[in-house]
Amino acid sequence: NDLYCAKLKGEKLSDEEKISGDVDLFEISLNGQYVYYIKDYDNSDDVGSLFCYKVGAKEPVKVSADVACWRFSDYGGYLYANISTDGASIFFLKELESISGSYTEQGTLTAWSYKSGERTKITGDVISFSADSGFETSEVNPRGFVFMKNGSVDSKGNVTGDWYYYNGKEAVKFASEVYD
Fold this sequence. Notes:
0% of the residues lie in helices and 64% in strands. It has no helices and 15 strands. The strands form four sheets. Strands 3-4-5-6-7 form a five-stranded antiparallel beta sheet, with no helix packed on it. Strands 11-10-9-8-12 form a five-stranded mixed beta sheet, with no helix packed on it. Strands 13-14-15 form a three-stranded antiparallel beta sheet, with no helix packed on it. It is globular and about 60 Å long.
């Protein structure tokens, strides 16, 4: 599917501009200034190439290949990522693997900044879905958010993990073996 950017004035669109063709999934920052999208989705591995388009820029920027995502139809899917509150950074998962004995996955949490163009690995074994994780909302504060990692399954089949706080520089553990 083709992805376009346009100005909206009242009920009218103007200045339509094609961002990219063959787009599989996309997310828009809450401030409307950044569009993150997936191309080249591989449904056998549930990964794709992540791009960022800043409104008004000449070209999109490739953020990373092999970013975890899941496309369940021609019109829907899920990108394992959260956009920062200012839209200029994205935090995403790569290298997802199943936690043995569960339907839950964990992977490598990675950050990317439009301003610097730098991609940084934050930490591994981050649980993709956890009930109270700050990584589960649609956006995160790049100066700090909470997530769960080091998933395992207890004798009753419950997923447990350790709670971490990312302070913008490093991930710090603050609770151990908490139930998801």
